[in-house]
């Protein structure tokens, strides 16, 4: 659910708990860094990657946000063939909640080719450089072993009232 205000957050939480008691909800502050191209009622071209992770335990919240939202963002955008990029800080944490969630949109070819994914088609040296830069950047703020990735398609539905 997008754009839930604090005023109706309690009501939404109550409805979720009543209807889907086993579901987990994450209350996030989301920043759209690069808006993906979407057309209502049509499958989004390419692939979507949802990644959740935990911050390194020794980092303060301010350090985590600086390293992820400021330092890492340009690295992610230049080392991957990113066509959409949304970062979500999890604000209402439980014991099993991640600290961060990122939605990344890629061209279809990126699902079949490491070179296409890392913005280095037909250039093995650039591919290794981009992978190295990305991993080095991630190692500055993501807790080792905490990354979970889901690859999927997106089909935005326009609901009319």
Descriptive overview:
By secondary structure, this protein is α+β, with helices and mostly antiparallel strands. It has a single domain (29-152), classed as Alpha-Beta Plaits. The chain is built from 4 helices and 5 strands, in the order H-E-E-H-E-E-H-H-E. It has helices spanning 6-19, 61-79, 114-117, 124-138, and strands at 28-34, 47-53, 84-90, 100-106, 148-152. A 5-stranded antiparallel β-sheet has the order 1-3-4-2-5, with helices on one face. Helix 2 packs antiparallel against helix 4. It starts with 5 loop residues before the first helix and ends in a 9-residue tail after the last strand.
Biggest sheet: strands, sense, closure? 5 strands, antiparallel
Spatial strand order of the main sheet: 1-3-4-2-5
Query: Which stretches are poorly predicted, pLDDT < 50 over at least 5 residues?
Result: none
First CA to last CA: what distance? 17 Å
Total E-strand runs: 5
What is the 3D shape?
Answer: globular
CATH architecture: 2-Layer Sandwich
Might you state the CATH topology name? Answer: Alpha-Beta Plaits
What string, H for helix and E for strand, traces the elements in order?
Answer: HEEHEEHHE
Q: Which structural class is indicated by helix and strand composition? A: alpha+beta
CATH domain class = Alpha Beta
- Measured by DSSP, the beta-strand proportion falls in 15-25%
Total domains: 1
DSSP helix fraction: 25-40%
- The mean pLDDT is 87
Q: Work out the helix count.
A: 4
Rg to the nearest angstrom?
Answer: 17 Å
